[in-house]
Amino acid sequence: MSIDIDLRDSMLKATPNLRAFAISLTNNVDRADDLVQETLMRAIANIDRFQPGTNMQAWLFTILRNLFHSEYRKRRREVEDADGKYAAALSVQPDQLPHLDFEDLQKALARLPHDQREALLLVGASGFSYEQAAEICGCAVGTIKSRVNRARNRLAELMHFTDMEEDLGPDRVTLSVMHAVA
Prior knowledge:
Shape: elongated
Protein name: RNA polymerase sigma factor
Structural class: mainly alpha
Radius of gyration: 33 Å
Distance between the termini: 59 Å
Number of strands: 0
Pfam families: Sigma70_r2, Sigma70_r4_2
Domain RNA polymerase sigma-70 region: 16-77
Largest sheet: none
Number of helices: 10
Organism: Microvirga terrae
Family: Belongs to the sigma-70 factor family. ECF subfamily.
Strand content: under 5%
């Protein structure tokens, strides 16, 4: 992209003032130089938006100021971690555990008798009421309630659940974090 010589000269003429303004905003010479460079790059990329006959320096200062404020808003949300200690302390739960739990559930469901699995899936997974499930299966409501209860108990047994709240609730690590925060 070629730029008009007069525009280029007015941009170069404004550069020392841009740098001084950037230093006053950032209090850091290196960041100020980066800001001036980014300003000039944006100005060149958008030179078609500059209206000839208007003040080039004012246009460049506006670009610099907007860049500074955008960067400031972005940096305000960032955490300074120069030595990497904060990042080293972070950990992420492995994401394969829910998948493995789901596979275990599928295998346990497959081991249930058909009538119990059907009742449990209608009431538990599909959200039908006991009455609706009984109508779908063509049996009494009490029969569906009994099948669901037996299916839940057998499922817990197959999946080796002893204490439902502990086994189905948050794991120990998550609980310790929740109690530390509270």
